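Worked example 3. Consider a protein that binds uridine-diphosphate-N-acetylglucosamine.
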Amino acid sequence: MVTPCCVIQGRTSLRGDIAISGSKNAALPILAATLLTDQPCVLHNVPELTDVANMLEALRLLGAEVISVGPRSWSICAKDVHTDARNPVVQHLRASVCLLGALLGRKRSASVAMPGGCKLGARPIDLHLRAFHRLGAQVHQPTGYVSLQTDYLTGTVLSMLGPRGPSMTGTSNAVMAAVLAKGTTVIRHASREPEIASLCRMLNQMGARITGLNSGTLIVKGVPFLHGTSFTVPPDRIEAGTFIILGYLRGTPVRVHGLTPQFLTENFQGFFDAIPSARRHSFFHDGAFEVHRIEDLPGLDICTLPYPGFPTDLQPQISVLASQAISASRVRDTVFPQRFAHIPAFRRLGIQAKVEHDTLHLAPHSTLHSGEVTATDLRAGAALYLAGILADGSTTVFRPDYVDRGYEHFEEKLQKLGAELTRLS
Ligand code: UD1
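Given these inputs, the predicted complex is written out as structure tokens:
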């Protein structure tokens, strides 16, 4: 039996058109939010990912009716749902933690297995639990799951600020628990990541009263019930960023579809600020964002930060680009300071890199060569594909299932651009 892997023949130039799919990190809490009403919600542009399949299955296991109503469109009706999500499916993904807030909001009770997801260093949920407690829930954490219980939830003042900035899924949870509470909840230091605003927009369409979107302080006025709606998931900024980085590495050019100038302005400020020559090598042309290879990239000095800073979910991918710069680069991750499990694999492919505390130091002009490497998480997996496309010879990436969790048809999209790769499974 073959161990699943992807074999990549490197040094190909990439040219052509690809379309960006719906956002994973927007879709997952939005799927959880369908539990907040007994009426059907119809969601469009839901990406085809294993994380999404697992979330849909988690909703089914709770008793929701989940029906495919077209390509990437789902109708979900949570008319009769129970509150026990202690099952292995929810342990496969981080965003299953959002079931807690949605079930607590709707049913005043939830038992959810501890979430899984990528191991990016410590991923506590203390801020989530503190928010539930302040809203009035009794919180129990027996081994392996979290249990929440209350007769009613009451609006209060919350802070989602942790030691490394606001928590993203923590903010989603606080909002979902607060929308049906009595009175007003003020969420200070709310995550400003665009996916939170998408969730709030969908909830407002369902009848919620949330203001302060994108401001860092969300004000949630509780309402007695929410109704069904239809909602289209926005494009995935991390997938877009990955293909834009690929364009800077090998594009002759790569043309990225599905982004608008407004979307780029709102989502890529920190990204373009971090790559000084980016704007000269990428621009809108003929209905697509066209990305050309950067030949003489100056060394990069990147620091990941909560939105609107450079996103931690593009840290491994930008590190591959930085390894090709004409002078040394630094990549610091302040959101997940231990998010460097992929560095041994980078080194195996010839990337000269050294980790000191929360910072990766990269030598200029690394010459990448063939090798066998194993993905350690979703974004690191994508970075290894980029490295393989850049490398001289054949690179084998094991654990391609990590990439399937969060990139829709990644290998097909790369092949469409001219990459030579084969999945063995
Ligand atoms: C989400 C994203 C993930 C992204 C991350 C940071 C989803 C499904 N995942 O993860 O792709 O990399 O945001 O943008 O949307 N923290 C605490 N206590 C808590 C919660 C978090 O201290 O209760 C810390 C974490 O350890 C981390 C930082 O806060 O250092 C940010 O974590 P958080 O925003 O919560 O990440 P996730 O929501 O898990």
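Take a moment to read the result before moving on. Residues 83 and 107 are 7 Å apart (CA to CA). The domain at 5-21+235-424 is CATH 3.65.10.10 (UDP-n-acetylglucosamine1-carboxyvinyl-transferase; Chain).
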